[in-house]
Inverse folding.
């Protein structure tokens, strides 16, 4: 059973990352555009939301599957990879064509392509690898790490031990940010991309799920509404304060962890006034297509910039470009979701079920 409010929020998080990647007018002379750029730039925090949400949703899905029937490690990993790899391969090919073309494919190092295709490139602290080809794919490389960690470590930990691991990891990250690695040139990889450190977000999501499933607190509609509004105000306040006063290395992840945890916790109950507003079928549909939007948007921006001259000092031109390009990205992502992502995912999951059913029947007949 899906939690529609969280599904819809995925669209807004992907949209935030989309707006973050409109870097082309960073050096505009327009004061108003400078302000919008700073606001849009902070959209990268959508990644933190996705990772916290991932910890929650994967735990939620795993729990629901496991209580209905035996749910093996193989099926879990197959379902997770069936979710990521088809769209990854499609957008990897699209990025290679968009950025290099057939004639220049030989200029791309085979090791870079192999690491990217296998989704292990986030492990390499080199921008030539972790930002290679379809740059946003680094984040799903981190997701693969989470899936393996979920099975081989976190799923076997009791809540208090999981909380201890998360708190220790967060404390260690804060220690490095405050001292030994403050201002280090590899901070972008260390604190934003490094799967081992981003695991703190995933653990936070798992802990939220465990609190959610414990039934220790079931808010009323009015309480849920207050929590939802409060969580969004808290996130906005963190963003406003962070842009002005917090170093980028902290904002890469740890600074936004608490407000993002509160957002997921507030909306996972799905019964506040904002949840009711965003749980309409259209927004849930866009949320379901958000993975395709996330994976294709940077390519859309690059192609649009290549073919559309924009005066970065003209607010009208910049905002029209941003608006039309964003709308194009949303339309393309919905098409990918409906015509490729969903059918392929359904086929792969059905293949696993048919394979297991055949194996079970064969064993039964013998």
């Amino acid at each position: 059973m899906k939690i529609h409010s969280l599904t819809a929020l995925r669209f807004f998080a992907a949209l935030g990352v989309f707006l973050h990647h409109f870097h082309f007018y960073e050096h505009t002379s327009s004061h108003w555009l400078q302000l919008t750029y700073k606001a849009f730039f902070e959209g990268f925090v959508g990644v933190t939301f996705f990772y916290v949400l991932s910890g929650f949703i994967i735990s939620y899905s795993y729990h629901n599957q496991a209580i209905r029937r035996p749910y093996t490690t193989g099926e879990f990993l197959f379902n997770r990879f069936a979710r990521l790899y088809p769209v990854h391969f499609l957008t990897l090919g699209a990025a290679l064509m968009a950025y290099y073309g057939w004639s220049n494919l030989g200029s791309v190092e085979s090791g870079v392509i192999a690491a990217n295709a296998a989704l292990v490139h986030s492990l390499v602290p080199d921008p030539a690898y972790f930002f290679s080809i379809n740059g946003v794919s680094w984040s799903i490389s981190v997701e693969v790490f989470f899936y393996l960690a979920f099975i081989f470590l976190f799923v076997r930990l009791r809540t208090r031990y999981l909380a201890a691991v998360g708190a220790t990891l967060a404390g260690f990250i804060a220690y490095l940010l405050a001292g030994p690695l403050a201002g280090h040139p590899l901070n972008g990889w260390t604190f934003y991309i490094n799967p081992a450190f981003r695991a703190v977000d995933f653990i936070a999501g798992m802990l939220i799920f465990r609190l959610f499933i414990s039934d220790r607190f079931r808010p009323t509609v009015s309480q849920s509404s207050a929590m939802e509004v409060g969580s969004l105000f808290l996130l906005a306040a963190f963003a406003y304060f962070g842009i002005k006063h917090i170093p980028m290395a902290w904002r890469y992840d740890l600074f936004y962890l608490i407000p993002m945890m509160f957002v997921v916790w507030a909306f996972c109950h799905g019964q506040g006034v904002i949840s009711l507003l965003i749980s309409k079928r259209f927004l849930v549909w866009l949320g379901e297509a958000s993975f395709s939007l996330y994976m294709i948007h940077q390519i859309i921006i690059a192609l649009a910039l290549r073919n559309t001259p924009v005066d970065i000092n003209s607010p009208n031109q910049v905002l029209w470009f941003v608006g039309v390009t964003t709308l194009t990205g949303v339309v393309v992502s919905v098409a990918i979701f409906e015509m490729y992502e969903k059918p392929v995912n359904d086929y792969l999951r059905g293949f696993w079920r048919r394979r297991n059913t055949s194996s079970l029947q064969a064993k039964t007949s013998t």
Observations:
- The CA atoms of residues 65 and 71 lie 6 Å apart.
- The mean pLDDT is 92.
- Residues 315-365 form the longest helix (51 residues).
- The two ends are 36 Å apart (CA to CA).
